[in-house]
Amino acid sequence: MRNVLITGGAGFIGSHVVRLFVKKYPNYHIINLDALTYAGNLYNLEDLESASNYTFVKGDICDEVLVHEIFQKYEIDSVINLAAESHVDRSISDPFSFVKTNVFGTLNLLETAKNYWKEDFSKKLFYHVSTDEVYGSLSSEGFFTEATSYNPKSPYSASKASSDHFVRAFANTYGLPIVISNCSNNYGPNQFPEKLIPLCIHNICENKPIPVYGNGQNVRDWLYVEDHASAIDTIFHRGKVNETYNVGGISERTNIEIVEKLIEITDTLLEREKGVSKSLITYVTDRAGHDFRYAIDTSKIERDLNWKPSMSFDKGIEQTVRWYLENQTWLEKITDGSYKDYYKTFASKK
Ligand code: NAD
Ligand code: TDX
Q1: CA 86 / ligand 1 centre spacing (Å)
Q2: Beta-carbon contacts of residue 97 (< 8 Å; ≥ 6 apart)
Q3: What spatial distance separates the first Cα and last Cα of the chain, rounded to whole Å?
Q4: Is the Cβ atom of 86 under 6 angstroms away from ligand 1?
Q5: Is residue 212 lining ligand 2, measured as CB closer than 6 Å?
Q6: Is 88 in the pocket of ligand 2 (CB under 6 A)?
Q7: What separation in angstroms does the CA of 336 have from each of 16, 93, 322, 333?
Q8: What is the pLDDT of residue 145?
Q9: SS3 category, 78
Q10: Which burial class, exposed, middle or buried, applies to 204 when counting CB atoms under 10 A from its CB (0-12, 13-18, 19+)?
Q11: The pairing of beta strand 3-7 with beta strand 78-81
Q12: 29, 173, 191, 217 — which has fewest CB within 10 A?
């Protein structure tokens, strides 16, 4: 029996992690703390509404009183911290909100966990979910390893790097048992359509321009979201305390390759003339400070925990396009904000 606090569980990756834990571990009580910002919505977890080992709490990880109450009420013994502001473009226009949630919010969780657990740190764990972007940008050669120096280059990655440093500082200073994973770009169902892949699928369907930043040659390493959830499960249960694990998809693609692949799959599934949507590709002004390439060396997690991605990129991307085409109402509800009304109905049912 464990009482696991998962933060950000109504978001893209968090919802897949919550579902995996609720279904796979019926003896665990999963408490999902999420502020339901624009990026989080409970439609992602509709199927879990009646699960007896699952509790949703609407609230902010920065709220000291609330987080303390949750630790006491549910006797929390582990945290998986996924709550964050996660979109690089938003961090460029509003860096303060990133510092608030990603840095202050993480610090609040750390401080509460430390104070609540300080008499006995055994069988406790603070698991912080981070990103490969903390390592900065690669040229066309080389990979990020766990030993790569931090060199964040966007306000988003600077805030995630800062939160990682606080997590390690709490391990070093107070002996808090921690683990951190740094993951590459995720894709799959339930991703908010501000990110490259769902945005492209949406725009292809709607015959709208597909904005490609700069020359489209930037490279990302793509991981199917359920593979990330399985890596989190593995690290949570078998990762060594105080260690860091890099998680990646071993699937590097340039952005323009991604866009062309999405056009090919979507046009086929919509029974359009082959390649007709290529005319939607629109090169636009580059993202400020745009990192050129991210690529992960996954040898540590493969060697020490016997984990590697199970989904091939070609299969995962086709499955993802199919999901968006079959879930148009999900997209409409989250883009028109009606998920906020759904929360009110959900809250009154509980
Ligand atoms: P997301 O933006 O889809 O979801 C974030 C969730 O956190 C939302 O449900 C939101 O409501 C919630 N949230 C935001 N601020 C909050 C606050 N102050 N208090 C409580 N809840 C709050 O993000 P995601 O893509 O699912 O990413 C989840 C985590 O994984 C983040 O920490 C991110 O840095 C990390 N990560 C993401 C990727 C990726 O490709 N998406 C890759 C590596 C790491
Ligand atoms: O419209 C677009 N056009 C475009 O060319 C968008 C939204 C993006 N891009 C480019 C920028 C990036 O090179 O596509 C690439 C992917 O962009 P995003 O989907 O915004 O992801 P990225 O900036 O790489 O960051 C993501 O991966 C790491 C997540 O948003 C982070 O939360 C995660 O930590």
Answers
A1: 5
A2: 85, 90
A3: 23
A4: yes
A5: yes
A6: yes
A7: 23, 22, 22, 5
A8: 98
A9: strand
A10: buried
A11: parallel
A12: 173
Q: Which two tokens stand for residue 74?
A: 């549910």
What pLDDT, on a 0 to 100 scale, did the predictor assign at position 341? 72
Distance 101 CA to ligand 1 centre (A): 10
pTM: 0.97
Structure token pair of residue 312: 């091939």
For 176-229, the pLDDT digits (tens) are 999 999 999 999 999 999 999 999 999 999 999 999 999 999 999 999 999 999
Ligand 1 binding pocket mutation candidate from 85, 86, 183, 192 (most atoms within 8 A of CB): 86
Rounded Cα–Cα distance for residues 176 and 294 (Å): 30
Considering Cα of 167, then 171, then 175, then 176, what sign does the dihedral take? positive
- Please provide the average confidence, as pLDDT, over all residues in the chain: 96
H-helix or E-strand spanning residue 3: strand 3-7
* Structure confidence at residue 336 (pLDDT): 77
Q: Cβ of 147: how many Cβ atoms within 10 Å? A: 9
Q: Hey, what domains does the chain have and what are their CATH numbers?
A: 2-186+224-247 (3.40.50.720), 196-219+252-289+311-344 (3.90.25.10)
In angstroms, what is the span from residue 15 Cα to ligand 1's centroid?
Answer: 10
Higher pLDDT pick, 239 / 333:
239
**Which residues are known to be catalytic?**
132-133, 156
**CA dist., res. 43 & res. 341, Å (int):** 11
CA distance 308 to 249: 8
